[in-house]
Amino acid sequence: MKLARIIGFHAVNARLTRRPESVVEIYANQSRDDARMAALVAAAEGADVEITWVDSSRLRALAQADEHQGVVALVEAGSDVVSFEDALEQSLSRKEKLGIDPLFLLLDQVQDPHNLGACIRSADAFGADAVILPKHGSAPVSAVAMKSASGATETTPICTVNNLVQCIEALQKSGIWVLGAEMETKATLFNTKLTGPLGWVLGNEGKGLRRLTRERCDALVAIPMQGAVESLNVSNATAVCLFATQAARNAA
Q1: pLDDT score of 231 more than 70
Q2: Backbone Cα Rg of the chain
Q3: pTM exceeds cut of 0.70
Q4: CA torsion, ordered 142, 144, 150, 152, to nearest 10 deg
């Protein structure tokens, strides 16, 4: 059986709550004895998942990282894989049944795993249906990214696609308006319609959106900046754009 590593209390708890059958085993730091660990133990017992107590060096080896928060879970690889087509279909079905407009986050070659994790965390916080990543040029959903996401990788579908431009075209054909976050444009979050089915595209940390991605978006929108700083980190920009979208929807 192929296994994937899930580290961090939030991620493990989310998995035990949402898909306990996919958790094979949990390894925990034998020196931890606090309320968070007690809650995790209770959740594991409730899901009938065994916990193996190990020392810090063993945990570091399992996590393949120094920052493991005292717990590593082995889960079935691919148990949460969602295709873009399935995510889109589920989103459109939810709109039809519940009237909730689709909201997608597309990341155009975000390469820092901390940024990737923070973007996924914001996607979860502000109700995005899925996060879409290109297979090439993007940071992997690694242990570092999962830790930065604080469990959001277990609750937000993450889809990888071969071609981000074709993905944008598929969203547009389904009636989803695609906005690209760009610094130099007159359209801003203050004067752009943010209600209805939307997809937000955020670009690479240094280069921003690639040319073809930029050209395929329905509109380019800037975040109004009041201070001396010209731009925001991609994870901060993601949070601002998704929050502005939900604020506009709530006001409407």
Answers
A1: yes
A2: 19
A3: yes
A4: -20
Q: Give pLDDT, residue 62.
A: 81
Do residues 112 and 176 both lie within one domain? yes
Q: Are 67 and 114 in a shared domain?
A: no
pLDDT digits (tens, 9 = 90+) for 53-107: 999 888 888 877 666 778 888 877 555 568 999 999 999 999 999 999 999 999 9
150/205 Cα distance (integer angstroms) = 21
Instruction: Estimate to the nearest angstrom the gap between the alpha carbon of 163 and the chain centroid.
Output: 19
Q: Are residues 68 and 97 in the same domain?
A: no
- 67 and 168 in a single domain? The answer is no
Q: Are strands 71-76 and 23-29 parallel, antiparallel or unpaired?
A: antiparallel
What does the alpha-carbon distance between residue 26 and residue 17 come to, in Å, rounded to a whole number? 14
Distance, CA of 10 to CA of 248 (rounded, Å): 29
Which residues lie closer than 8 Å to 199 by C-beta, 6 or more apart? 102, 103, 104, 105, 106, 168, 171, 176, 177, 178, 179
Residue ending a domain, among 76, 101, 121, is 76
58 and 141 assigned to the same domain: no
